[in-house]
Amino acid sequence: MNAATIELRPAVEADVDQILEFIRELARYERLEHEVLATPADLRERLFGAQRFAEVVFACEAEVPVGFALFFHNFSTFKGQPGIYLEDLYVRPHLRGRGIGRLLLRHLARLAVERRCARLDWAVLEWNEPSIAFYRGLGAEPLADWRMFRLSGTALEQLSASPGSR
Asked: Which residues are the active-site residues?
């Protein structure tokens, strides 16, 4: 199998279990499986419900998903334009190095251009040298001057309930 035999297709609601399976496989690879709390109901509501928060595209071989990308729009105030944020990119380990990840990223780049987005962003774990090398090979550059921050769980709840907030 190579990228020439791969077809891309958008996920549909019936794919929720496959999406969650890929999320869990990616989490295992990243040593973060203990953090996966998503359920099929969560994904069904948030990917295919009345308010859709993200999109998924599958890479398929003979109609069988072998990888996926989950992404959503963000917005650059400096550029005054939307962007695409790639949350998850995953190709099954035995199929890596065959151009499937590149095919998925090319698809997202084309969507970004078609949708008049200023950029395509994502994060990568610092220890993940194979992925970093792959991304650099595409021309992507790390944002050395930026650090990601996150509020979640108790800290998020506390800030939302703090005096003066509405």
From this structure: 135
